[in-house]
Amino acid sequence: MKNATLAWHHRIVLRHEGFGLVDELDGCGGLADLPGRVGGIGGGRSVGRSVLHDVGLPREGFTTEANEAKDRAAILPYYDRQGKSHLLCSLNMKRAFSFFLLAELCLSPLLALPVRAASLSPGDLIKGPGEAVYYYAANGKRLVFPTSKVFFSWYSDFSTVKTLTASELAAIGLGGNVTYRPGVKMVKITTDSRTYAVASGGTLRWIETEQAAKDLYGADWNTKIDDVADTFFINYTAGASIKNASDYQPALQTEAAININTDKKISGDLTTPPVNPNPNPTTPTSTSPTPVTGQVTLSASRTTLQPGDILGLIAQASDSTGITQIELFFDGILIKRCEATVSCSGETQVPTSGTKTSYEVKAIARSVNQNVYTQQQNLLVETGVSSKVEVTLGQETIRPNQAASVTVTIQPDITISHVDISVNGIIVKSCTDGSRLCLWSDYVYGSIGQTMPVFAKVTDTLGRIYNSKVLTLTIGSNDSPSVVVSPAKTQIYVGETLDVTVTASDNDGISSIRILKDGVILKTCSSAQPCTIMTGPWNTTSTTLLFSGSATDALGLMGSSTAMQAVTVIAK
Fold this sequence. Notes:
Blueprint: E1 11-16, E2 21-26, E3 37-38, E4 40-42, E5 45-47, H1 51-55, E6 72-79, E7 85-94, E8 102-107, E9 125-127, E10 133-136, E11 142-144, H2 148-152, E12 161-163, H3 166-170, E13 174-177, E14 186-189, E15 196-199, E16 203-206, H4 210-217, E17 225-228, E18 237-238, H5 250-256, H6 260-264, E19 294-300, E20 304-305, E21 310-319, E22 323-330, E23 333-339, E24 343-349, E25 358-367, E26 372-381, E27 389-393, E28 397-398, E29 403-410, E30 416-423, E31 426-431, E32 437-443, E33 451-460, E34 465-467, E35 471-475, E36 482-487, E37 491-493, E38 496-505, E39 510-517, E40 520-525, E41 531-538, E42 543-553, E43 558-560, E44 565-570
Parallel strand pairs: 9-12, 11-13, 14-17, 16-18, 20-26, 28-35, 37-44
Antiparallel strand pairs: 1-2, 3-6, 4-5, 6-7, 7-8, 9-10, 10-11, 14-15, 15-16, 19-21, 21-24, 22-23, 22-25, 25-26, 27-29, 29-32, 30-31, 30-33, 33-34, 33-35, 36-38, 38-41, 39-40, 39-42, 42-43, 42-44
């Protein structure tokens, strides 16, 4: 039989059941005075209940083989006669003899008794009996770390986490989710190709160019990006984009975010959750039941839906007795069930076929004492105009034989499969190269006064459809060009020359201008610029010269001046 030297002075007897052997160990804090037994290790076998199972620790690396050279660690709980565990100790096991181990027993700081909630301070990390860790905020709420990556953007380890009882943790209401610490990482939404920097309060700032990302985070910038699920996108807000490195300084952003309270701008009168200061309470003096309060909140990653969308849901629940289960439903179908947690998230895809104009999403939470909390929302299916697709016309009214033109632009958050442009119900152009600009121009034929609807439909790679607003193209009558004749003088002397100018204008443009005298063409100009000719010299007195003009527009319609201009030749 071997004795082990321990930090405390009490002696505990370890009985190795199955071998009939007894090890005497110096005990932990007076446990030797209590009736019962201590779970232990002996002869290369576990004795009694599984120690690791009792305390919820991982089994990796645990062994009791006596011939193992490496040091091993086990946890030693004390069990009373009712089988209840009272205290946990760390047992560092060293190689000894074939069936006996020397053990050095000490109190494990990781398995200390739960702290009282009354001793909490703003900024503490807290947890209950489960594994989830929360941030205790200055407003008395607990904030959830959605992922371990978010946690490690703020902390390097779990060494400062304080453990509460289930009832104490449940008494602290939820206050939302923690976002990435500014400046530490870049992030990318799983359904968005853009890369963002994180600024104060969970503000996302799109980094517009790869060069800007290199300038901010170095040549290995693409190794410093974390994906954020659509489910948690609602925790962030959009900010101004980053065009170059002068727009954003990661180190200053991180330095300014001293803690999560500062980053979230959380302040207020802190109300410590009610707890019983006496860990061994006596019989209560009042038999009035304590009111039970709780709630469940449900958030969706999208406010409107498109067929084929990936929809993220997250529910958070609280109850003074603790939450046992949270369920998430989409259109009456269970998509996720979470047990023994206050936060539950899941994803589903909106059906790509069907005629529904809305879908119901719902969260149901159940508490320890069987309270049931429900919250639901109706999300509309976007079947009309999408603000992500814009269509414009070159001209809203065209003339016969005049070409029409359409321009379609698509926002960058749509992964494009193809774009269809429709005129009067007919697809006149399909763009399949993934470009965010689709152009069309061609002649449109119809009767004068006819109107034609024009719109664009964008289909993404998941089959979702985005429709533009509908514009109206009108075929109008062709107005003839307006023509003006302008002689330089209305009276000239015998032998003098005379300049005559003709100008023309038309909505469709001018292709040619002509100058005429007495119905005879003196000059033709093949442009829209004013057309001028010098006439004369005129040698006949008492003569009246009559000048006129005509023009042809870009569509081939000719127009003439409304009146001839008369010029009189007089003697000197």
